[in-house]
Amino acid sequence: MEILREISRRSVNGKPQSISPTQIRILQASPSLNSGLDFDINDIDETFLFNKIGSDQLFTKPSPSKPSLKMIFFPTKQWKSISDDKVPRTEVFSVFDYLRLDDALFAYLLSSRSGWYCVANGERYSFMYKDYLYMLAWSFELKTLETRAVLAARSEYEKRSSLKFSDGKFHLPWLRPQHLYHPLSLAFLCLTDVVFYFDKLIMDEGYTIGDIEKDTGHGLWVDKRNNIQATNLPNLMDASRNIAKIIGVFANLFKSVDVTHTLIESLQDKKTWRDWYKGYHKDDEEPMKSFDQCVTSFSSAVGLLKSRMKTIKQSGRVIDERAKAQSNVIAALIRREDARVGHQLADASKKLAEATKKDSSDMKVIAIMTMAFLPATFFAALFDIPTLAWDQPNVITHNFWVYWAFTLPTTLLVFVLWDVLNERMIYRWVGRLLCPIEKKESYDCPRNGGIERLALPAYTGTALDG
Fold first, then answer.
1. pLDDT digits (tens, 9 = 90+) for 136-187
2. What residues contact 300, with CB distance under 8 A and at least 6 apart?
């Protein structure tokens, strides 16, 4: 219970810094002479890790007189490179073998599946808990009371886990000397961390859904007297994304709650663990005494944690229902916003049509005025041509051909340019004249600026064919 009190006080007073660890950390713990724990912590890189594992020098040798915990911590980036096959599988398996993990866990260690797993193998048990905070796997050697573990940080570890120093670096601040005697001590620390993670998650997402309810003006705690923020399409799309995230988060939360229930069942199974433990240490007073102390402390704390998990699940369902209700509200508001925008577009289209109609009327006026002045302009130009001598008996002079020599080619060129700029209208018009569709003849007809072969009926030969 003291661990729960400390975590509770820490959650109120403040939380560890949120940093992204970049180095692999080796943590070793053993009982000290002053009834506490001696910690040996070192930060290393991958090359050093695999070299020390290869030479069996990564961990100190276990003492036959006292229990110990040896743990490897992998930051998110380093573990991702391992799970994504960027590190040779032989080196990965060498880590697992060095930690004495059962081969049955290998497939789950490198996958993305969450769960709680427990595998027995004689005097050794292998365990694994995997969720959104981290993947934690360990083996417990009954003969030497040695625990070897690996913790790989996952997506939520940096922001929400309490297994770290106040400076944000990995640590086990709630580990006690008697915990080293129990095979499920890491499971208990993990359960405690996960429950507080769920608490913080529900609190944060509850505030998020409350802000969305205020923005939309629909919700249980919305005060009608407050001014509702004007909703527009970008804001609604942001709210929709947040709602989708919240619904996904709580779907994962419900799955994680079910996983923690199986973990709690293992912690509450006192008889199985005591019988297994007593089978080897029944004559050792100190290990059995520490084991029983650990079981007693676990029992009272696990009962409280189980009650909190029940409350967390109920609170999660409430927030999930609020999120789904807001999803429907946002969908309705988006449809209303689409209708409003559509109405505005219709008004704009109407105004554009009116403007286009006015422009057409103006062009019609210009065309009529051009038609009115064109005959007069033509005859004025014609009478002013020097090649026509109107005061002479022979009006048409010998240079009159020059006028036609320039006029006719220029006119033809103008029509050709007009035809090119208007998708070869004349060419298609000529093609339709030469190739009527109703006549299925055996020649090629131009169409749409190209040549299209018309379908011809099958020819049937006769005896008269030469």
1. 999 999 888 999 999 999 888 888 888 888 778 899 988 888 899 999 999 9
2. 1
pLDDT-wise least confident of 30-39, 77-86, 208-217, 416-425? 416-425
Query: Does the pLDDT of residue 33 top 60, yes or no?
Result: yes
Query: 90-127, pLDDT tens digit by residue?
Result: 888 899 999 999 988 888 887 778 899 999 888 899 99
Q: Which of 77, 76, 24 is nearest to 51 (CA)?
A: 24
DSSP annotation of 101: -
| Residue position matching structure tokens 């580990």 | 175
Pairing of strands 68-74, 146-153: parallel
328's tokens: 């429907």
Q: Using the structure block, give the residue that is written with the tokens 């002053």.
A: 34
Torsion angles phi and psi, residue 285, rounded to 5: -70, -45
Rounded distance, CA 130 to CA 450, Å?
A: 66
- Supply the pTM of this predicted model: 0.70
Give residue 448's pLDDT band: very low, low, confident or very high (50, 70, 90).
Answer: very low
Contact 168, 75 (CB under 8 A): no
Least confident of 25-39, 259-273, 377-391, 429-443: 429-443
Paired tokens of 111? 């996958």
For the chain, the three-class secondary structure string (H helix, E strand, C coil) is: CHHHHHHHHHHHHCCCCCCCCCCEEEEEEEECCCCCEEEEEEEECHHHHHHHHHCCCCCCCCCCCCCEEEEEEECHHHHHHHHCCCCCHHHHHHHHHHCCCCHHHHHHHCCCCCEEEEEEECCEEEEEEECCCEEEEEEEECCCCEEEEEEEECCCHHHHCCCECCCCCECCCCCCHHHHHCCCHHHHHHHHHHHHHHHHHHHHHHHHHHHHHHHHCCCCCCCCCCCCCCCCHHHHHHHHHHHHHHHHHHHHHHHHHHHHHHHHHHHHCHHHHHHHHHHHHCCCHHHHHHHHHHHHHHHHHHHHHHHHHHHHHHHHHHHHHHHHHHHHHHHHHHHHHHHHHHHHHHHHHHHHHHHHHHHHHHHHHHHHHHHHHHHHHHHHHHHCCCCECCCCCCCECCCHHHHHHHHHHHHHHHHHHHHHHCCCHHHHHHHHHHCCCCCCCCCCEEECCEEECCCCCCCCCCCCCC
Q: Which residue has the tokens 């040549």?
A: 451
Would you give the DSSP letter of residue 105?
G
- Distance between CA 131 and CA 259 in Å, rounded? 9
